[in-house]
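Much of what follows relies on a compact textual record of a protein's fold. A complete example follows; check for yourself that the lines match position by position.
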Amino acid sequence: MNVLLVILGAVVGAPLRYLTDRAVQARHDTVFPWGTFTVNIVGSVVLGLLVGAATVAAVPHSLQLLVGVGFCGALTTYSTFSYETLHLHEDGADFHAVANVVISVAAGLGAAFTGAALAQAIL
């Protein structure tokens, strides 16, 4: 049953990641990977909300598997973040490569902490 919950979450998260990435990137005429940045930040907020909720209320393990592991695991993408950063560097866009790393890590952590704090405040 646990594997099915993870798969179900991933079935929603993976296509949403792809569609969001394409939609966001199509709106920006820049080499900066805004699509990947967006899905990673959204995933960090969602995971932060889930973790924050779990610290103050009983969150079923099944929901943690469905949303935390399946959905967020498929929505967010460290491998694409790494690839795009490397690609920016190889194309000579070193400023964008460094900005991608610094901004993504800072914003991702900030989003996770904000989501956790928000869930704790609400619950």
Q: What stands out?
A: Residues 94-122 form the longest helix (29 residues). The chain is about 85% helix and 0% strand. The CA atoms of residues 53 and 99 lie 31 Å apart. The helical segments are 2-26, 34-56, 61-75, 78-90, 94-122.
